[in-house]
Amino acid sequence: MTLALRSAELAALVADRALRAGTTADLSAYDRERDAATRDKFRVNRVLQQVVAWPTLADAVAKRLASRPDLADRLVGIAGDFIPARSAFGPKFLWDLLTA
């Protein structure tokens, strides 16, 4: 739902700019802006899909998250779009996850 709303917001902004400029010939800015806005979120989703695909890895990550509720909360916040997805790729979060 969040992705749909964010995409609609970006589409409206691009359409508004195009209409104010008097041209709608090139609306490719929407694709670029949507890609930039969703890149990190989709990257996190792909990583989580890979983790879930490997049961041993999924178990290890689950154990780490169980011992560090703050990291689990952060991951849920990222998945729910309450926390920017790019923070999942920050060195501190990754270090905390690997050393929990």
Would you give an account of this structure?
With 100 residues, this protein is mainly alpha-helical. It has one domain (2-99). Helix content is 79%, strand content 0%. The protein contains five helices and no strands. It has helices spanning 2-21, 28-53, 55-67, 69-79, 91-99. The longest helix has 26 residues, at 28-53. The relative contact order is 0.11.
Question: Can you give keywords for this protein?
Answer:
100 residues; mainly alpha; 5 helices; 79% helix; 0% strand
Question: Can you summarize this structure?
Answer:
The protein has helices spanning 2-21, 28-53, 55-67, 69-79, 91-99. The longest helix has 26 residues, at 28-53. 79% of the residues lie in helices and 0% in strands.
What distance separates the N and C termini? 32 Å
Give the beta-strand count.
0
Shape: elongated
Q: How many separate helices?
A: 5
Beta-strand content? under 5%
Uncertain residue ranges: none
The secondary-structure class comes to mainly alpha
Q: What order do the helices and strands follow?
A: HHHHH
The proportion of residues forming helix, as a percent range, comes to over 70%
Overall mean confidence score, pLDDT: 86
Can you summarize the main beta sheet? none
- Radius of gyration (CA) equals 18 Å
Instruction: Tell me the number of structural domains.
Output: 1
